[in-house]
Amino acid sequence: MSRLVKILLGLTAVLVLVALYVLNPRLPAPQGEQSALLYEPGTLDVSREPLELVDTSRGTNRNGEFTGSPTRELNGYIWYPQTREQGPYPLIIYSHGFMSSVSEADYLVDFLVPKGYVVAAIDYPLSHGGAPGGPNVADVINQPADASFVLDQLLARNADANDSLYGMLDPSRIAAVGLSLGGLTTQLAAYHRDLRDPRFSVAVSIAGPSVFLEPGFFATSDIPFMMIAGSADAIVPYDDNAAPIPAKTKDGLLVTLDKGTHVGFTSIASVFLRWVQHPDKLVCPMLLGGLDREGSEGETIITPDRGIGISDAASQPCVMDPFERAMRPADQLMLTRLALYAFLEQTFAPDSGRRQQMADYLSAGFVAENPAASIN
Q1: Distances in whole angstroms, Cα of residue 83 to Cα of each of 78, 121, 350
Q2: Pairwise CA distance, residues 22 & 18, whole Å
Q3: 126 close to 96: Cβ distance less than 8 angstroms
Q4: CA pair distance 338, 19, nearest whole angstrom
Q5: CA gap 317, 137 in Å, rounded
Q6: H/E/C letters for each residue in the chain?
Q7: In whole angstroms, what is the distance from residue 258 CA to residue 370 CA?
Q8: How does pLDDT run across 224-264, given as a tens digit for each residue?
Q9: Cis amide linkage into residue 246, ω under 30° from 0
Q10: Hey, how many other C-beta atoms are within 10 angstroms of the C-beta on 177?
Q11: What's the alpha-carbon Rg for the chain, to the nearest Å?
């Protein structure tokens, strides 16, 4: 074998090792006894089906060069446990963030579905990363109805004896969960006076904009609500949006991740951004470009209406200076999984003892075992 071939083989081996390290990062595990037990992987095998839905009752607005459409196309996936005997299962309708997609929630799907949850997510017509005419934040006002339409279709399948979802979903245990603009979608779907869907019995907003949502906005429903946010969020600033949540909601919980970021809540961050000092710094230019394209930077996302509890308050994104060292994305995802799972189990677990155990964990154990988190 020639020296050149040996060198090339050696370089190839190094590149393979580097690729394996990059694509398979070390994932943290909680150290506390209760947290470690909750974090154990689920045992149920998972099925995934594409969702290709069309709402013919509503149109898609004109957007840039896109001339609009008389319908709304809602494409995505549903993930569910293969074991029918342990159903029916709680259903989560997940809403992605601005300029993102359904893949954003992979880390939650991989964790929750093997533990006995069903997750459905679609790319919203005008706010996902590949939206015709470019992502448009203003279309968020139409997304609660999209979520309700998806729910309509899934519950219809759940009642159809010839469908693969027959009897798999529990209509009394449905959660709305979303990140960023999807977090706002979740809040609108759960609390907006005219847009809320009473079938949602739990709502979780992960770093969702809420500076303009007043206490009256949240007074339409008493369903359990949780906000999960990072204190170093440069895109949806923590002090403006998340910190006031406990004072705005009757029984809402705020989970704060110390030095957590906005981008740190996405699946991709733990793989490709784990060496970055502050992931939001890399994404801010692209975000500001998208907002500037549609003239939304620094403006309210939805139309103010005091009667509904929506003010004209606004929060400027990406003004953080300096961008200090942030929480590792993998740690952030781990804590998000734990908090979300415990919160869902607190409401959805069939056994009352389990529900009380999860309530106790959230009130004491979670923070005691994970000092980078706090709950108010």
Answers
A1: 15, 21, 17
A2: 6
A3: no
A4: 29
A5: 13
A6: CCHHHHHHHHHHHHHHHHHHHHHCCCCCCCCCHHHHHHCCCCCCCEEEEEEEEEECCCCECCECCECCECCEEEEEEEEEECCCCCCCEEEEEEECCCCECHHHHHHHHHHHHHHCCEEEEEECCCCECCCCCCCCHHHHHHHHHHHHHHHHHHHHHHCCCCCCCCCCEEEEEEEEEEECHHHHHHHHHHHCCCCCCCCCCEEEEECCCCCCECHHHHHHCCCCEEEEEECCCCCCCHHHHCCCHHHHCCCCEEEEECCCCCHHHCCCHHHHCCCCCCHHHHHHHHHHHHHHHCCCCCCCCCCCECCCCECCCCCCCCCCCCCCCCCCHHHHHHHHHHHHHHHHHHHHCCCHHHHHHHHHHHHHHHHHHCCCEEEC
A7: 11
A8: 999 999 999 999 999 999 999 999 998 899 999 999 999 99
A9: no
A10: 28
A11: 21
Strand partners, 66: 63
Query: Which neighbouring-strand residues pair with 213?
Result: 310
Q: How would you classify residue 116: left for phi > 0, otherwise alpha for psi between -120 and 50, otherwise beta?
A: left
Q: How far apart are the C-alpha atoms of 343 and 36, rounded to whole Å? A: 16
pLDDT for residue 53 is more than 90: yes
Q: What is the pLDDT of residue 299?
A: 55
Distance CA 83, CA 205 (A): 29
For the chain, the average pLDDT equals 90
- Quote the CA–CA distance of 218 and 40 in Å, as a whole number: 34
Beta bridge partners of 206: 179, 228
Cβ-contact 367, 375 below 8 angstroms: yes
Work out the number of other CB atoms within 10 angstroms of the CB of residue 22: 12
Q: Which residue bears the tokens 């991989």?
A: 110
Q: Which tokens go with 179?
A: 């990140």
How far apart (Å, rounded) are the C-alpha atoms in residues 192 and 204? Answer: 15
d(Cα 166, Cα 293) in Å, to the nearest integer?
44
The pTM of the full predicted model, rounded to 2 decimals, is 0.91
Spatial separation of the C-alpha atoms in residues 211 and 228, rounded to whole Å = 15
Residue with tokens 């429903």: 221
